[in-house]
Batch of 3 targets.
Target 1
Amino acid sequence: MSVSAQKKPNIIIIVADDLGWNDVGFHNPEMITPNLNAFVKKGMELKRFYVRPICSPTRAGLMTGKYADKLGIKGVVNHRAEGGLSTQEKTIADLLAGAGYRNRGAFGKWHLGHSDIKYHPLRRGFTKFYGHYNGAIDYYTHFRNGALDWHDDYKISRDTGYSMDLITEKAVQFINKSAKEPFFAYIALNAPHAPLQGKEEDLKLYGYDASQPIGNYNGGGVQNNEYNTVDYGKRGRGNTARQTYSAMVTSMDRAVGAVINAIEQNKIVDNTIIWFMSDNGGAMQFSATNKPLRGGKETEWEGGVRVVSAVYWKGKWEGGKQNNELIGYIDIFPTIEAIAGAKSKGAVDGVNVEKTFNGKTLADRYFFLGKEAMVTRKWKLNGDQLFDMEKDPTESHNLSKKFPDKYREMLGHWKAYVKDNGVIVAN
């Protein structure tokens, strides 16, 4: 349903960072996420929402509606990287600017280029930016590799406090100021991504005892990784890595609750779309769990590419339903485009999935996941293995030999995609 005569809806996209499939209360009662639990009860959980297994490619596809490979972003645009999301690409913020959305804010982690001012969010369609360019910053000092990475628009910000709290505060301020006309808020929360640093109030919810030693971990409890090469502070460490990770998830949940509360307080809940997702699966080396899904971040197993996601639009997308259609990160752009009555130039890879939120079925398709992986409604190819996703979502039974024709068919579609789009698989 495109919007013409009626007021265009506010659009809020909330992206968690490295959130595990089994690390939300509605999948695992040990996790304390009351706001997300309430959100899925009111809205609609997307049970088969796919992304790329690492952050920058997912964010690039979300912003453009295109597969990350086509954008030249196959890995993390980290602190050492030059380049970023091509300036030839129009972002969802550019799209909504053309549709009359005057206020377009980006809050939190950018991760799509910082080596040149042309990659800055304020040059990519946004009118407000507050947060950090890179990932894996210290939650308290906001430093990464000896440099302060905290910004308010173009300026370095020396605001003090836990990063999640600061991001949330600025996002809520933006909503309060923008509530009288349609706005777009992209809220990229940095939790529960490493380094593992929680807030004491959240750590206590998971049994933190200040009289006991803090966990002997830096970044996430593993050795010889990039997080241990950075001088992160010890503030915010709990007694164990898992305890700290869990506390960070709860902090992330509190941020979601604050955003929803701002929408309710401004009495605009019936005209606001909220889309929640994680950028990739949980990083198991940093205590995330993706059970019962196989694998995790940086793999094309379900635990790396199938993530927690839900949508809510009061009066339209609601009812506490579970949606089992194949939907992904590249579908956000064309869906919002149609709803907002916007018009982009050029083709995208995603499709408008709004009709499935209203109970209709999407046409089946071959959805590229990266490297040697592709999925349809029923089948998944991952390397030389084939799985029936309807019967075996945990990817326990390789059926490539049992169904050789289907395996060759999937492999053929994957090869065609790689050839047609010049994809370099070895990344």
Target 2
Amino acid sequence: MKNPTAIRMAQRLERFVYAKSDQIFFYSYRMRQVVLDSGLPAEKTEVHPLWVDTEAFKPVPRDEWMKIRDRYEMGDRLVIMYAGNIGLPQGLQTAIECARLLQERKQNDALFVFVGGGPDKERLVQLSQSYELKNVLFIPPQPLASMPGFMSASDALLLHLDKAPFRVGTIPGKLFAYMSCGRPVLLGLEGEGADLVSEAGCGVVIEPQDAEAMARGVAALADPEDRRRMGEASRRTAVERFDRRKVLARLEDRLEEIVARGKEQATRAVAS
């Protein structure tokens, strides 16, 4: 939004909604802090994370994902896979530029695989063709049910978002699906999502929009034992902290507590 009047109206609406709310839930501590800094009382706020269905998104057996690698002739290269919407916010030109750098340096072990479609895909396809890249592969969008197989066929899963101030509190839902499939994450993101990956030890965090940094990140994923350890940390963290059933059960309990408290307060108000 650029129009100053529209921005002021949106901010007034925001303040009105916050003031009238009894409780406000955030999925990110940094997002919560931004609102607290605007003057919202801390006692009205709490954080409940996003979740993932860890039964739907889980590692598939080796023979299943090897069929995918064979079908698309990925071979035994280091497969860095992006799966999902290929749009402008994802800033995936950085990955194309990284592939160009690696090819120019004759570091041909890595293969960047993009599974999906979106408004920026055709431009990226044309860019990779203009560079005559042999280390980039585009695969059309696949059914959701097949995505755990594709993710399991990777050696590491790429998540990248261009820099923007409001993204420091962003934790893309895609990150949890990646982690739940038990693969290391190559993460080009600032803020809370980067903190999560670093603290869990489940991937390599790089500076967004920096092809050279991404090339270093790819190099950091070269060791199979390191990838195995990070992949195990990914799956373990997803199951322990972000499993859909666990997160929603806690959220349901909390909502019931809030409703019960509200009823109790209303009863006391009537009695007085």
Target 3
Amino acid sequence: MHNYTFHCDPGHGWLAVPLSEIRKLGIADKISRFSYMSGGMAYLEEDCDAPLFIKAAGLTREDITETHTNGPAACRNFDDFDPARVP
């Protein structure tokens, strides 16, 4: 069983997911530009994209670990999600 990390800052949150899993599930074209990508990972925004992945992958709360930062999350500086760049 895979464990996923949900990154939170004071304004928002993102679920870190390998791009390969998004490709396997066939949902890359459903991910919004409000998510990010870097280094083989997607950071799926909490309102629409993360729930889409969670449902498609059949995850439960036990599969997700939360981390919090008081400043801006690092993923805010990553590239916007682009389905054309999912391997």
